[in-house]
Design brief:
Length: 365
């Protein structure tokens, strides 16, 4: 755009030692062409631990599909940290993320974000999305795993009179159940949505008949599922939640699911599946360009090791999917924490989010 080019030329005369990008970023935080950003427009507390952050993205953002996620970056103590978050808003609406405070970045986002804050962004991605052709759906979610499914429900249910969705959502208590009231209202309003809450904590206050259970949903057998959704085998199922919940669901569908390509189970994980006990001895990791070292135990990823000693590590999903973290290996061997395999030759690109040091390692970063 000519006006922006002219402004950038003027900026380059006026801004030394700031670069034109820095200067334009100060004038309009969404203007940077180097890094996609978004401005926080609304912050809503959902549960004691979870917050929805609505934002208006700058140029370069692609509209999300229901169920997709995006990398979100925030500066914490001067270091830009990236994590992935599902977009909980309906497709076609301004994006929002719903963050549950469990660690460094999520706590900063969930507890300290305010309207006007700037988030660093990457474009939406992921294939945990609605099927192309409408069909009966079963959504099986636990905890913050409801977020991508909420986007699907918000997108599908009000717009499609032929929607047929059963949501089984497990939370510790009603107070912890994300989007509780909105879901019940949607189910009241649209016959195409049935919502079943399952509360795992003993004595969880029941919101309605049969809503408090005081134990975890048993996915080792089909009994709970049969009682919640008798035709579960005939539905295309989507599941998102903690690792053990998803492992149990996967095993159940493999064992007892229907032999029908349209009625399978699609899952979304928020964390990688690491093989227990795969960590070996570890070693000293040298981040050559950053001139930093870290003595990393064998079960600590190279990504965590780098961030721990202040190296700005590239990252994305942090679970071995997106390959944003690829970093050249200069010397040494690494261990894949998902399989235990020790590998690595000079020049290999290493996924730092799922590999740990297996002895001394040098990385070109
Ligand atoms: C595709 C994708 C979508 C995601 N969507 C969301 C979302 O919508 N809302 C959300 O709150 N988080 C979501 N996450 C998780 C998020 O990216 C972070 O991992 C999470 O916020 C923890 O980051 P942290 O820096 O606070 O914790 P850290 O300090 O980095 O580490 C905390 C530990 O918790 C583990 N962990 C990650 N997620 C969970 C979880 N949900 N429950 C329990 N332990 C977990 C991590 O593996 C790590 O070991 C998603 C992750 C992925 C890969
Ligand atoms: S951060 Fe996505 S593969 Fe490593």
């Amino acid at each position: 755009m000519p006006q922006i080019r002219a402004l950038r030329r003027v900026a380059s005369l006026l801004t030394t030692p700031l670069s034109p990008e820095d200067f334009l970023g100060l004038v309009n935080p969404l203007s940077s062409t180097r890094q996609l950003r978004g401005v926080v427009t609304r912050v809503t507390r959902e549960t004691p631990e979870s917050t929805t952050i609505h934002f208006r993205p700058g140029k370069g953002w692609n509209a999300h599909e229901a169920g997709q996620w995006a990398r979100i970056g925030v500066e914490i103590d001067g270091v830009r940290q990236w994590r992935s978050y599902s977009l909980s808003a309906a497709a076609g609406h301004d994006p929002a993320i719903t963050v549950t405070a469990i660690g460094v970045v999520s706590t900063a986002l969930a507890r300290h974000t305010t309207v006007g804050d700037v988030l660093f962004l990457d474009t939406p991605q992921g294939d945990f999305t609605l099927p192309e052709h409408p069909r009966p759906l079963l959504m099986l979610t636990a905890g913050s795993g409801l977020t991508p499914v909420m986007s699907m429900i918000r997108t599908l249910v009000p717009r499609r009179p032929d929607a047929d969705v059963v949501l089984v959502h497990s939370a510790r208590t009603r107070e912890d159940a994300l989007f509780h009231d909105e879901l019940l209202e949607l189910a009241d309003q649209f016959p195409g949505l049935v919502v079943k809450h399952w509360y795992t904590r003993e004595g969880a206050a029941p919101a309605g008949a049969g809503e408090a259970h005081g134990r975890r949903l048993d996915l080792e057998t089909t009994t709970d599922l049969e009682s919640l959704c008798p035709d579960w085998r005939d539905r295309a199922a989507y599941a998102c939640g903690p690792a053990d919940f998803l492992d149990a669901a996967t095993a159940l569908w493999e064992r007892d699911g229907a032999d029908d390509e349209h009625a399978g189970l699609t899952i979304e994980r928020f964390a990688p599946v690491l093989l227990p006990g795969t960590g070996g001895e570890g070693g000293l990791v040298t981040f050559e360009k950053s001139d930093k070292e870290f003595d990393a135990p064998g079960d600590v990823t190279l990504l965590d090791a780098g961030e721990e000693c202040g190296v700005v590590m590239p990252s994305g999903c942090r679970m071995g999917i997106c390959r944003s973290c690829l970093t050249p290996l200069v010397a040494g061997k690494v261990r894949d924490l998902r399989t235990g395999e020790v590998h690595g030759e000079e020049g290999d690109l290493i996924q730092t989010c799922i590999n740990a040091a297996a002895g001394p390692v040098h990385l070109d970063i």
